[in-house]
Amino acid sequence: MNQSLEQQTCYDIAVIGGGINGVGIATDAIGRGLSVFLCEKDDLASHTSSASSKLIHGGLRYLEHKEFRLVREALAEREVLLSKAPHIIRPMRFIMPHQPHLRPAWLIRTGLFFYDHLGKREKLEGSNLVYFVAETSPLKEEITRGFEYSDCAVDDSRLVILNALQAREKGAKIVTQTRCVSAKRANGLWLVELENEQGRYQIQAKVLVNAAGPWVAQFIKQDLQLKSQYGIRLIQGSHMIVPKIYEGDKAFIMQNDDQRIVFAIPYLDKYTMIGTTDREYTADPNQVEITQTEIEYLLDVSNDHFKKQLQQSDIIQTFSGVRPLCDDESDNPAAITRDYTLVLSQEDENEAPLLSVFGGKLTTYRKLAESAMDHLKKFFPEMNKPWTEKALLPGAENLISVDELVIELQNKVKGLDVETASRWAHAYGTRIWNFIHHATSVHELGQHFGHGLYAQEVDYLVDSEWAITTTDILKRRTKLYLEFTQDDVQSLDVYLVELHQRRLQKEVA
């Protein structure tokens, strides 16, 4: 990066934070004709946005807390996002086993009626009552009936990356591993000081967007030296991944005595993902990890419902994140609003505005971005109209179906197993040809690191998707981290170091 050139650049909008809300706002803004800069202190989606339950859902349980506006918006967005990115988002049926002592049947039926009709629903099936046959049901024999409804599953980190790709292709400048050290107002602009491994540099921006997620309030107080209008409450959500505990592609939504719910979701064909928890978190958001109490809680809920009994030794992997929720002074972490709050700060009309994002959820990121643009319209009256609702995300262009793409890949690339072809089709959609190029055999794809990861894919991820480390590639780009052994990881590490060195030598030459 030519840092002296960056210093001369004045952007319309500088976005701090490369999670789903940050990239969503950057994408919307660049498509309306504004110039956009986005920085992320780590990798894209490396915190809250990749630690979700990996669902695009209306939030059935939010109805109990009377969050009707949020649920209506989220229900409508399921259909919008399903159309925008059918390769990374897919419909999923959810089964709620009925526990009469927790919630009466009439209450659940009423909630599902609202769920079916509050938002526009065209692609997804409605809800219905189901009965379980003891011999074939994975649930304990005393659970005889339940309710079934629709939501969607998503690859959360790829949703972030695809939005970032779209923003960059439209002209946005997106940098990772770059921290905003400070920002101050001067002459109607923001002077933003940034730091990466090459050193420090400055950019200018007319508007600063604080989408720092768990760090949103801290950024205002420490880096901007300003007062935050809202407090933030960090709510830890943890998940565990275990070997598949039941067959089929449906998820289960399990009620618990404390009125919270826990999902059991089919994950990557071989596993079941169980979560999430809700607990107040007050430590460093960079260091969030599952607690023993959470492990026991999730095991207990699963074992109360399923015939397959789990022990702690069955857990293959865990992941945790903190949801930065707007402090509404609720006593119950599960009842704190999941809705978003946007705060525009500008003491007089000559002062550069600051827009801060509090709260939000994966499903409503696009509507949050549109709302952010509404807040900023008075500063950019020439901006274009909303455009993201019908715009396909990268990889969805000319995609007839993921299944057909899998067949096409296997026909064109000899020796390609169906598991890898399916992973590629779901992760990249029609953009898969950007790294396969003219290869007609897996032997033309370069070094094989195992489990269907070839050098050509790694090179593409480094060149085009901001990947730097093995974790970036295995955890957030390909989801192969559950398959790779320590030796596999070491082999990939060596390759990435050599690749980095080759790139540096090219730059010097």
TrEMBL record:
<dbReference type="InterPro" id="IPR036188">
    <property type="entry name" value="FAD/NAD-bd_sf"/>
</dbReference>
<keyword id="KW-0274">FAD</keyword>
<keyword id="KW-0285">Flavoprotein</keyword>
<dbReference type="GO" id="GO:0009331">
    <property type="term" value="C:glycerol-3-phosphate dehydrogenase (FAD) complex"/>
</dbReference>
<dbReference type="InterPro" id="IPR038299">
    <property type="entry name" value="DAO_C_sf"/>
</dbReference>
<dbReference type="GO" id="GO:0046168">
    <property type="term" value="P:glycerol-3-phosphate catabolic process"/>
</dbReference>
<feature type="domain" description="FAD dependent oxidoreductase">
    <location>
        <begin position="12"/>
        <end position="329"/>
    </location>
</feature>
<dbReference type="Pfam" id="PF01266">
    <property type="entry name" value="DAO"/>
</dbReference>
<dbReference type="GO" id="GO:0004368">
    <property type="term" value="F:glycerol-3-phosphate dehydrogenase (quinone) activity"/>
</dbReference>
<dbReference type="InterPro" id="IPR031656">
    <property type="entry name" value="DAO_C"/>
</dbReference>
<comment type="similarity">
    <text>Belongs to the FAD-dependent glycerol-3-phosphate dehydrogenase family.</text>
</comment>
<keyword id="KW-0560">Oxidoreductase</keyword>
<dbReference type="Pfam" id="PF16901">
    <property type="entry name" value="DAO_C"/>
</dbReference>
<dbReference type="InterPro" id="IPR006076">
    <property type="entry name" value="FAD-dep_OxRdtase"/>
</dbReference>
<feature type="domain" description="Alpha-glycerophosphate oxidase C-terminal">
    <location>
        <begin position="388"/>
        <end position="492"/>
    </location>
</feature>
<protein>
    <recommendedName>
        <fullName>Glycerol-3-phosphate dehydrogenase</fullName>
        <ecNumber>1.1.5.3</ecNumber>
    </recommendedName>
</protein>
<dbReference type="InterPro" id="IPR000447">
    <property type="entry name" value="G3P_DH_FAD-dep"/>
</dbReference>
